């Protein structure tokens, strides 16, 4: 019996292996297709919560651009000896308040740099980030339009709607002159200050343990303070009237630039911040390890968030390292 059945076993086993391998290939193909969709987070494009969060980002960005640009203009129009100090303090308070207001709904990004950083460390999906950034840029344009509607034409011309202002028009002995800083100097300031901004404050908000330890108000107050300090430092070291300080927010530069038709300023902002947005993630510290791009960093299933991916509500303990 053994001799008669043994050849059958020898013949059937290779056939089984071939069928098994064929089945595995088909399953892998199906799995790969679904995994790509999950990695991109395409299902979130049909989520009402994501669009609700994007509306909060739009409104927050619009208010941010209107408020900060108004602060820039009013600080330099006010006859004070240290307008940059007043401007930095007011910007710190404004940023902290807006982050606290939008955090329960969208996570309190209101900045494409923060949103991209969240993607790079796997906190949100690429699809959600695209919706957020589109909303932030749209809100910035609306905020600039609102500012344009309330200021007179001379202020608009002098301060370029208070966006990422590199130069202003000032009275001179022989008529109006343009004063400010060079574009190369402004680009380097954006690169360095955006890196410091990410390294010093954002990762505290992304780390749920630190965030819960010190509290939401303290975290966003620190973020606002860091932004204000960098604005004050950048305007102080240049010592040139006409420069409004680092923006560290491409959307804030984009809005007034589109309304004014000046693409150079926001292009510099985008280049500088995108560069150090990538560099900043190299210093993320998670469980005694540094990882620029964790395994599955674009995978939407690693988004351990509540309240639509609030940095203060995320659980990073299960992130792959």
What this model shows, in words?
With about 325 residues, the chain is mostly helical. The protein has two domains: about 1-40; about 45-300, Up-down Bundle (Glycerol uptake facilitator protein). The chain contains eleven helices and two strands; from the N terminus they run ααααααββααααα. It has helices at about 1-40, 50-75, 85-105, 110-120, 125-150, 155-160, 185-205, 210-215, 215-240, 250-260, 265-280, and strands at about 165-170, 175-180. It has a two-stranded antiparallel sheet. A hairpin with a 2-residue loop joins strand 1 (about 165-170) and strand 2 (about 175-180). Helix 4 (about 110-120) packs antiparallel against helix 5, helix 4 (about 110-120) packs parallel to helix 11 and helix 7 runs antiparallel to helix 9 (about 215-240). The longest helix has about 40 residues, at about 1-40. Mean pLDDT is about 75; it is low at about 10-15, about 15-25 and about 280-320.
């Amino acid at each position: 019996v053994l001799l008669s059945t043994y050849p059958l076993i020898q013949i059937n086993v290779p056939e089984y292996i071939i069928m098994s391998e064929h089945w595995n290939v088909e399953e892998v193909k199906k799995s790969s297709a679904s995994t790509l969709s999950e990695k991109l987070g395409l299902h979130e494009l049909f989520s009402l919560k994501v669009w609700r969060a994007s509306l909060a980002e739009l409104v927050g960005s619009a208010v941010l651009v209107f408020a900060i640009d108004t602060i820039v203009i009013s600080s330099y129009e006010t006859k004070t000896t240290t307008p940059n100090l007043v401007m930095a303090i007011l910007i710190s308070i404004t940023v902290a308040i807006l982050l606290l207001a939008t955090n329960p709904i969208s996570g309190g990004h209101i900045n494409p740099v923060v949103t991209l950083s969240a993607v790079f460390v796997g906190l949100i999906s690429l699809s959600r980030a695209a919706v957020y950034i589109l909303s932030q840029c749209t809100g910035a344009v609306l905020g600039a339009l609102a500012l344009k509607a309330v200021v007179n034409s001379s202020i608009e011309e002098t301060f370029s709607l208070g966006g990422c202002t590199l130069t202003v028009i000032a009275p001179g002995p022989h008529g109006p002159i343009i004063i400010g800083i060079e574009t190369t100097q402004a680009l380097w300031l954006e690169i360095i200050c955006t890196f410091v901004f990410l390294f010093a404050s954002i990762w505290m908000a992304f780390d749920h343990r630190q965030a819960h330890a010190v509290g939401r108000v303290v975290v966003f107050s620190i973020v606002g303070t860091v932004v204000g300090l960098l604005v004050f430092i950048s305007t102080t070291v240049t010592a040139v009237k006409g420069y409004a300080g680092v923006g560290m927010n491409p959307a804030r530069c984009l809005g007034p630039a589109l309304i004014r038709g000046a693409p150079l300023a926001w292009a510099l902002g985008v280049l500088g911040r995108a560069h150090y947005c990538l560099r900043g993630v190299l210093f993320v510290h998670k469980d005694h390890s540094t990882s620029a791009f964790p395994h599955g960093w674009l995978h939407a299933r690693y988004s351990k968030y509540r309240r639509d991916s609030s940095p203060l509500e995320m659980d990073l303990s299960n992130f792959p390292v």
